[in-house]
Design goal:
Blueprint (H helix, E strand, L loop, with lengths): L1 H21 L2 H22 L5 H16 L6 H23 L7 H22 L6 H25 L2 H24 L7 H21 L2
């Protein structure tokens, strides 16, 4: 069953990307709603050490996807961002369960770089005042995910750790693109860039955690 749902996720991802390229909005919405459920069910069947926060993070990501379908409404945009923020925290907690050693030097460097990126991102994105505090909290949650996945990679030194760390990096890229254009006009292939990096991020983290 796990291969069936992994194939379903892969096929739906390919189909969704085609809808982003050729502009079919109705099919885009339908395929977007099917992506994360398929990946979460895959995790349910494939996980060697099942953790409910991982499944919950996937479902929160799915909720975020649904809310952001009509992100021009502020309340839906805020709820979508909240879903992703809580999902990042669930992933962070889950990743920490597999870290046997904390690399304090790497942790210190990552925190410094993370804080610099946080303030730089806020300056570049320049969100409305209403979104300043929520936006900064979101960045902190994203940094926590990146730091925990870095510690996991340094601890394991294998492809699974690399997949999870890579997923956190792609989350950073996807969220930055989304945040930058959230208060501007999206370019033609802006949604394609956001969703491609986002789906790589979700797949890297969930598949990696399924096989640790």
């Amino acid at each position: 069953m796990k291969y069936f749902f992994l194939g379903l996720f892969t096929g739906t991802t390919a189909f969704h990307i085609l809808t982003l390229i050729y502009g079919s909005r109705k099919l885009r919405k339908i395929s977007k709603a099917l992506l994360m459920p398929a990946l979460v069910i895959y995790y349910f069947f494939a996980a060697e050490h099942f953790l409910w926060p991982v499944a919950l993070a996937g479902l929160l990501g799915w909720a975020g996807d649904i809310f952001l379908i009509k992100k021009e409404r502020k309340i839906r945009f805020m709820l979508g961002i909240l879903g992703f923020l809580l999902g990042h925290l669930c992933y962070t907690w889950s990743i920490r369960q597999f870290i046997g050693t904390v690399y304090y030097s790497a942790l210190a460097v990552a925190i410094i770089i993370g804080l610099i990126l946080a303030f730089t991102s806020m300056r570049i994105i320049h969100p409305p005042k209403l979104f300043l505090i929520p936006g900064f909290c979101y960045i902190l949650a994203l940094e926590a995910l990146g730091i925990s996945s870095l510690c996991l990679l340094l601890y394991r030194k294998d492809i699974l750790g690399g997949a999870i760390f890579g997923g956190s990096i792609f989350f950073l890229i996807s969220d930055f693109i989304l945040a930058y254009y959230a208060f501007r006009r999206f370019p033609r292939f802006g949604h394609l860039a956001v969703m491609t990096t986002y789906l790589i991020a979700q797949a890297g983290i969930i598949i990696g955690l399924a096989h640790i």
